[in-house]
DNA sequence: TTTTCATGTAATAATAATAGTTACGAATAG
DNA sequence: CTATTCGTAACTATTATTATTACATGAAAA
């Protein structure tokens, strides 16, 4: 299967939106993300329901970030996307009759559950503000490099 | 995409093999795992290369566990399977030119890398012997329940 | 009011990864 | 020599994500 890249894509989009004082259309976002406007709408729909963004139809409409950068963590966004499955690996059957399989499932589930909890906690520690700051740092570095070269 | 269930399947197979004093054929294993003999061979191929199991062709041949139950961890098996991708989620692009995307990738990669390290460490703590013991406990419990019922 | 712009959404196709099948070659025991 | 069993390549099926097409709905602008 293809890998799910919605979280990655949506973070990119939100940071873009944060830098602008007027709404961004799905068309504009799609160009940035190298994808299709309909895909943008579909993905942002979840964020709208959670109140992370607002959308306006018609002339001058588009998408706007509805909360402060410091108030939105990657975990919030993961949740708004519907908490998609994190792991590619899974059990053959979730409720097997065979006792061997039950023992195997239990051991694997244990490990995966803990890893998931840790990962989600980590996502909660990073806000859009953190990412915006990191971007600014990278941008300054980038300019310094360019200056140095000529 | 479909989820990868090879680790789960192979653990089931190995525990089965451990209980037997002669080789198990791919056919027999496939019946246990509700799958196809060719799938069994393909999956076991990696374990053979790592020396976890041996295979013998022809009459009376089949698959044999080559190491003690205490000496094989779930991590060893994960490695023998070729360390398949653990996460379903990934970045849109692994080496983006855009600096925003770089910042996003870095934050996500960080979180995922740590979760992966933790998960793999956890897999290393559980051996086939652990699983076999857990199975025996479950089996005893199962028999007790049956006895109680009549 | 009509036109234009933009989202909302359903339906369908494309893409990609895993799993299952078929077919046949190679080795080994009897 | 024959029956059995692994080894492997090629092809199909299944499933999840992503992309595309088409059209309805709502809102600003002409
Ligand atoms: S393309 Fe617009 S910020 Fe990455
Ligand atoms: S079917 Fe054989 S142990 Fe599960």
UniProtKB/TrEMBL annotation, chains A, B:
It comes from the Bacteria. InterPro entries: Tscrpt_reg_Rrf2, WH-like_DNA-bd_sf, WH_DNA-bd_sf. This is Rrf2 family protein. It comes from Rhizobium herbae. The lineage of its organism: Bacteria, Pseudomonadati, Pseudomonadota, Alphaproteobacteria, Hyphomicrobiales.
